[in-house]
Each structure stands twice: as structure tokens, then as C-alpha cells.
């Protein structure tokens, strides 16, 4: 299986350097990855470095904990779109979820979606599946599936547990067919990447992308 076209080549560490972004974008273009996923301050640079290639530029919103106000998330989205982001990976308000405040979550997504849709951008919603129960995951599938998002994404890579085949299978079973699945967090080898794609993932968030593409062993890392 060729997995390169599924990969969002990712670097999101708080100490990211310009040189890291330059290397990331060069690798993404070389290997034909679907996108690069970079911290918001590097969106403009990543857009310049991938110009003329099919590689998309993604960034994160409310990352990594998701508890910023919806107004703050919208401000981030607007600024990132101005800088050239093609895809927005938005962390949901996990405090609201864990306190069973589904009304707040519904309000959050209903305010975010029109902003992203008005500019024709792709939205991926991160629910941090590794720290959720199956029941909570299913409720997320129902809420965000109805909201019309493009992708439901497993993880930020910063929780104690990242992507799992079980979570992807659960997404696949309970999401509408028009909503795709992004698995991320702890994907460090080709075998696991292949398992996730076979379970239903159509994007993979990885920092070990080159190792996965070339079949090499990857070291540990947040993403």
C-alpha cells in the first residue's frame, strides 16, 4: 500500500524553528504527502515553500487543549486563512465534553463552521479519542457528522493515548459517509499506518512521515 498520499506531514512542537519548517515542506513536496501541518505562526512560510505543488497547508486551532473561547478560535481561524491555510484542524472544548455540556459544543461548532465554509476551506475536528469513552466518541460522531465537517480527527498527539484502530473503526461505523477520518498521534511505522488506513482513515497526521514512507524505524515523539 502506498501511504504517502494519506499523510499530513506534521511538526507542532512549541520550539519549532524556521529550518524545521523548511525541511518539513521540502520533504512533503519530495514524497508527495497530502499536506504539511504547522504551527499558526508558520502558515505563511509553509504556503510560500509549497507554492506550485499539490501539497496543502494545514494548521491547528485551539491547540492542544481546546478550552480557549470560541471567539478566540474564530480569531485564530480568520488569521490563519488570511495567511493562506487550506485546512484547519480544530480542537474541541474537551472540558465541555467531559462535563457533558453538549450544548456548548454544539454552539462552538455552529459558530466555527460558517467562518471556514465562507472561505471554502477544509475543517478537521479533533476530539482526542484516546481519553474518551466509546459512548463519548459516538456522541461526537453524531454531533460533528450533522455539522457537516470534512474530517473527524482522533488526537492532538499530546494526550496519553493517540490514534487507535478501534477509534477509527468506531468513527467509520458512526459517521456519515461524507465525513472522512484523520488518525493522528503515535503513528511511527508503516505497519500501523497501513492498519489505520485499512480501518477507514483517509488522512494520517505524522511527524515520522519520512520513516513511514521509506519503511525505516522512527523514534518516539509527540506526533
Automatic annotation (TrEMBL):
Associated pathway: Carbohydrate degradation; 2-deoxy-D-ribose 1-phosphate degradation; D-glyceraldehyde 3-phosphate and acetaldehyde from 2-deoxy-alpha-D-ribose 1-phosphate: step 2/2
Catalytic activity line of the entry: 2-deoxy-D-ribose 5-phosphate = D-glyceraldehyde 3-phosphate + acetaldehyde
Listed GO MF terms: deoxyribose-phosphate aldolase activity
Domain of life: Bacteria
Localization annotation: Cytoplasm
GO cellular component, one term: cytoplasm
Signal peptide: none
Protein task: Catalyzes a reversible aldol reaction between acetaldehyde and D-glyceraldehyde 3-phosphate to generate 2-deoxy-D-ribose 5-phosphate.
Name of the featured protein: Deoxyribose-phosphate aldolase
The species this protein was found in: Filimonas zeae
